[in-house]
Amino acid sequence: MGNAWWNLTLRFLLELSALLGLGMAGWTFSTAFWRWILAIALPLVAAVLWGTFAVLNDPSRSGRAPVPVPGAARLMLELVILFGGAAGFYLAGHAATGIAMAMLIALSYAFSLDRLAWLLRQ
Fold it and tell me: Where are the chain's structural domains?
């Protein structure tokens, strides 16, 4: 079920939302010049980490892994970035958005138990 079209679409939208939430947190919790740096750097670093560290032959991705990591490490990276984005919304004053995003992340993973099991076996 983890590779159902609707769950892959939801996952993609959550990934983009996480980047936005991290950027909003960077903007909200810094001042002056640093606002611009953190609002751009936090999502950029998260996107680079997301795209670089992967499990080899992950069916939910292209299968390629620029830097192969164990499945548990990849899962932790995903959870930190996704829930970090939700926390970014929450802490930036958009509590309802942050809570809704956290619930959608949990829902997506609940319907991806096959992928979670695969990740933890790697």
Answer: 5-121
Mean pLDDT of 90-108: 98
Q: How far is CA 116 from CA 29, 73, 85, in A?
A: 33, 12, 20
Q: 51: which DSSP letter?
A: H
pLDDT of residue 2: 66
pLDDT tens digit sequence for 60-70: 777 778 999 99
Instruction: Let me know: does 87 contact 28? Beta carbons within 8 Å.
Output: no
**Half-sphere exposure in the Cβ direction for 75 (13 Å, CA):** 15
Scan for tokens 């939700």, then name that residue: 86
What span, in angstroms and rounded, lies between the C-alpha atoms of 116 and 74?
10
What does the alpha-carbon distance between residue 70 and residue 84 come to, in Å, rounded to a whole number?
21
